[in-house]
């Protein structure tokens, strides 16, 4: 019975149905008029979209179990680990840093605008360094390892990435005056949208979402972010508002003439849980242990992936710039010559 109860709890938890079931059992439907009730109603949307994505793939005979297997195994592994490790990073940062805030905002619509802009900045910072600092890339690479895009990719994360992300984002928001209650509300919205933008071509083929592509960060933008094409490397770090990508010049539109290739650039086995979860750590450990001195070993850890002590760097920035230069040369050579 304990196993059946555990499976029941896991299934209702995964599909976000726990709160709704308790509400029906208690008969207290008044909770639907509260923020908690709204969260309960929206909770099942992403898991149900994932189920729809799988069923649609089965119906059109395009379902491939390998596209969902690894994210599912990572999810199961993380659930197992989380039973032994619990880090209340958000609460810790709020308690530690709130007294140092430059000012204190309130839970109002105009502070919501400010708070969301600050939140996007904090998300950009966490996400940017997750790609630009190799030890942090080791935490983040598990999320980029899948070689396809679908909603199951939401569950492919190294278990320590969430605490790292929460510490960075919460610290920045609290120090810049975002009200804690407002911060939790923003996290809820951002979590929902951040999950939705992983939706695959199987459900939404054109991820640009029409006019929204000019206003928000859409599934199209996030597909670009997950691509290993040289042009797309290390772009579109924001989550809902792409304002900071445009400010820091990391914004990149999806090109219709460039088919997206998902995954990470190193040679890896996408069907190996060990390689997906620990592969980048193994590669980093090999470089550090073979380094000629302590300084070089440290630089391997804090410099971007692809950095080399010999100067023969193969970082995402260099790879992307080389592609852009070559692409421009091709366009120039193919441009028609006009007679004077």
Automatic annotation (TrEMBL):
<dbReference type="GO" id="GO:0016020">
    <property type="term" value="C:membrane"/>
</dbReference>
<dbReference type="GO" id="GO:0012505">
    <property type="term" value="C:endomembrane system"/>
</dbReference>
<feature type="transmembrane region" description="Helical">
    <location>
        <begin position="80"/>
        <end position="97"/>
    </location>
</feature>
<keyword id="KW-1133">Transmembrane helix</keyword>
<dbReference type="GO" id="GO:0005506">
    <property type="term" value="F:iron ion binding"/>
</dbReference>
<feature type="domain" description="Fatty acid hydroxylase">
    <location>
        <begin position="113"/>
        <end position="250"/>
    </location>
</feature>
<dbReference type="InterPro" id="IPR006694">
    <property type="entry name" value="Fatty_acid_hydroxylase"/>
</dbReference>
<dbReference type="GO" id="GO:0006643">
    <property type="term" value="P:membrane lipid metabolic process"/>
</dbReference>
<feature type="transmembrane region" description="Helical">
    <location>
        <begin position="109"/>
        <end position="129"/>
    </location>
</feature>
<keyword id="KW-0560">Oxidoreductase</keyword>
<dbReference type="GO" id="GO:0008610">
    <property type="term" value="P:lipid biosynthetic process"/>
</dbReference>
<dbReference type="Pfam" id="PF04116">
    <property type="entry name" value="FA_hydroxylase"/>
</dbReference>
<dbReference type="GO" id="GO:0050479">
    <property type="term" value="F:glyceryl-ether monooxygenase activity"/>
</dbReference>
<keyword id="KW-0443">Lipid metabolism</keyword>
<feature type="transmembrane region" description="Helical">
    <location>
        <begin position="172"/>
        <end position="193"/>
    </location>
</feature>
<protein>
    <submittedName>
        <fullName>Sterol desaturase/sphingolipid hydroxylase (Fatty acid hydroxylase superfamily)</fullName>
    </submittedName>
</protein>
<feature type="transmembrane region" description="Helical">
    <location>
        <begin position="38"/>
        <end position="59"/>
    </location>
</feature>
<dbReference type="InterPro" id="IPR051689">
    <property type="entry name" value="Sterol_desaturase/TMEM195"/>
</dbReference>
<keyword id="KW-0812">Transmembrane</keyword>
<keyword id="KW-0472">Membrane</keyword>
